[in-house]
Write a structure and sequence with these properties.
Elements (H helix, E strand, L loop, with lengths): L4 H22 L15 E4 L2 E4 L4 E7 L2 E6 L5 H10 L6 E3 L4 E4 L5 H39 L4 H34 L2
Antiparallel strand pairs: 1-2, 3-4, 4-6, 5-6
Helix pairs in contact: 1-3, 1-4, 3-4
Length: 186
């Protein structure tokens, strides 16, 4: 008898891979301002590396403008340096109270580069899905070998695992397609 925990674990791990992909895609600049662009930026605050969103208020007053208002004004220069060091490619400007990030429109060349980046991330996500599938398939084969599951049960379970993998790969393709469309919009 094959334990249903195997399938719930499979589904849970694949959902986590999907969430990771969505989170990765949120931090990729598309020419529009979104606070998610700054999710990966951390600043040295009181002796520890702290996510930017934990030390400042981030708002989007206009479609191409992010405003960062630190709760402690002494962090302005530290935040500015962290943004400059990041791979965002945006120059911050400050007026001693807030930092403004003007999101420049993307060039055609930069859009194509970003599409390559998202395709690579999506492929990495699919590899993660296939690794999860492989692990579960090995677990099923071990159950069959140990005599815990019959050959027919193992085969049905393997088909179920493959269907789940195919479903998630299709979802990854849809997520990728939507992100590509978003990047290529002018």
């Amino acid at each position: 008898m094959i334990d249903q925990k195997i399938f719930s674990s499979l589904e849970e791990r694949m959902k986590k891979a999907e969430e990771a992909l969505r989170k990765d895609f949120l931090s990729i600049r598309t020419g529009r301002a979104t606070p998610a662009l700054l999710d990966r930026i951390t600043v040295e605050s009181y002796g520890t590396q702290t996510p930017l969103k934990h030390v400042a208020n981030i708002s989007v007053p206009e479609p191409r403008l992010l405003v960062i208002q630190p709760w402690d004004k002494s962090l302005i220069s530290i935040i500015e340096k962290a943004i400059l060091k990041s791979d965002l490619g945006i120059n911050p400007s400050n007026d001693k109270n807030v930092i403004r990030l003007i999101i420049p429109p993307l060039t055609e060349e930069r859009r194509k580069e970003l599409v390559k980046v998202v395709k690579k991330k999506a492929e990495e996500g699919k590899v993660a899905l296939r690794n999860i599938r492989r692990d579960v398939m090995e677990e099923l084969k071990a159950l069959e070998k140990a005599g815990t599951a019959s050959e027919d049960e193992a085969r049905r379970a393997q088909e179920q695992v493959q269907k789940a993998t195919d479903k998630f790969i299709k979802e990854f393709d849809e997520i990728l397609s939507a992100k590509e469309k978003e990047i290529m919009e002018v």
